[in-house]
Input
Amino acid sequence: MLDVRFAQYSHSEFDITSFNFPEKFLKDSSALLNWVRKRKRYIFDVLRNRSSFFNFIYTKTFQQHCFIGTETIEEVIKVSQNSRRLTGYFANKHFITELQRTTKRLELELKNPSDWFQRLSAEASIRRPVMVHVRRGDFKDDSDYYGLLSEHYYAHILKNISTEITSRGIWIFSDEPELVSDWELWKAFPVNFINQIDSEKADPAEFLKLMSLGGALIIGNSSFSYFAGIFTSMNSNIYCPDPPMKGVSSDPDVIYPSNWIRVQAQWQ
Output
């Protein structure tokens, strides 16, 4: 049994229970309760960041453990047995390798896919277009820390991909497509913006799965498209920004699998 109630009121509102994993999940059904918890978490986080004493109380109360992503699966399981809340940054190849070593292959299949997803996934499986993820959202408010990848980063990659692949189409995924839809580079390719408003479910899991179905994937500096890359078929080229973040010291050798193609990040 996995307790995902905390994830239900996280800032991303992303729910792993959309996928057909064998585990059973403990969830909250009350939207009002999730709304209250989300506001309470925000207040707690503000106080915790401003007071070392409150941070101590907060950690003890929630029995929180933060992983840095270099732990073995055995260490994660051991800590999980004594912690109510687990946090961490698992977007690195060490953790993924450990997961694949100790478990059977996980298939990223949706539990209840929408008609919209089934139609697009069937098209993607046939056409194998280039999938492109452009991360904006809250990154705009802290662009010096995370970085906003510029048009030039994506243009450099697309211009160096064979025309046989780009002629299949470019599918663009973005949390704020209106901010990048007027980029000049799109005019040179057959592009299709995959917008959330077009989906009846608007489930982020469906967008992550769709990104994994391309003949090539250009990820952003985001764990969302990173994990789409992890589940992409082995015969697809995956392009990733180097460095992964603008203002964060992070080692690409730790984060990216060795078969991914690193491209110099260019920031806005």
In short: The chain has twelve helices and ten strands. The first strand starts at residue 2 and ends at 3. Residues 2-102 form one domain.
